[in-house]
């Protein structure tokens, strides 16, 4: 039940972003090109916002390191899925785009980053690697895990 509660707390952040997107959607209906570009950019990056929000909510102390891990995880995941599914002839593949840039990818990368933060935020590394210990280790391990999740999703699609 605690995990579900933390997930719900993290889901509030993307809802706030949806309100902002709605404001720019109304503004872009006026015909201003700048508002249209802002709206399209926000829609394109919405899964990133979801990943960051869920990672913050899932972490024990709503740390910025969890937010960074959520962003890094989603970006690495997206790069892996696109690069492994990039066709040799350079043709556009809508399946790859839907597997990479959908709302669900933000959710599971946010959950992954939050859970990894809870597991590794206080890790102690050897003295010569101590700089990368603790909260600094979380984005690193999230990037590695996102690499494998991206490869798995790319193999499915």
UniProtKB/TrEMBL annotation:
GO cellular component, one term: plasma membrane
Sequence ranges assigned to domain PTS EIIC type-1 in this UniProt record: 1-157
PANTHER family: CYTOCHROME C-TYPE SYNTHESIS PROTEIN AND PTS TRANSMEMBRANE COMPONENT, PTS SYSTEM N-ACETYLGLUCOSAMINE-SPECIFIC EIICBA COMPONENT
Full protein name: PTS transporter subunit EIIC
Membrane topology classification: Multi-pass membrane protein
Locations listed in the record: Cell membrane
Residues in coiled coil: none
Biological process, per Gene Ontology: N-acetylglucosamine transport; phosphoenolpyruvate-dependent sugar phosphotransferase system
Organism phylogeny: Bacteria, Bacillati, Bacillota, Bacilli, Bacillales
Transmembrane stretches, start-end: 7-26, 38-58, 65-86, 98-117, 137-156
Molecular-function GO term, any one: protein-phosphocysteine-sugar phosphotransferase activity
